[in-house]
Amino acid sequence: MRRQCSIMRTDYIFQFESTNHGTVDWQFHKKVVDKMHHALWLVAKSHLVVLTKLDKQAKKEVLQELFESFTEDNQSVRDHNNKKARERRAKKLASDG
User: Which of 40, 52, 58, 63 is the most exposed place for a label (fewest CB within 10 A)?
Assistant: First the structure.
């Protein structure tokens, strides 16, 4: 019998192709496990951990580049949240008015 884990895993290692620093290993920070249960969540820089050994400045550049790769996903989350908020406000105005 196979058991399903109810806790999302944050120990998966991903790879990212940096413009100036080649292939970089990274993973999500362990503190985001509770956010991963949500269908939509905004990725912040603090949610990302660069695992590849780099000097401080290179790591900062890679982290920024990696974070920017989530821009499109984050924008779709914002758009979805704004749409839901507009619907909720319209529904409230209709029931009040």
Answer: 40
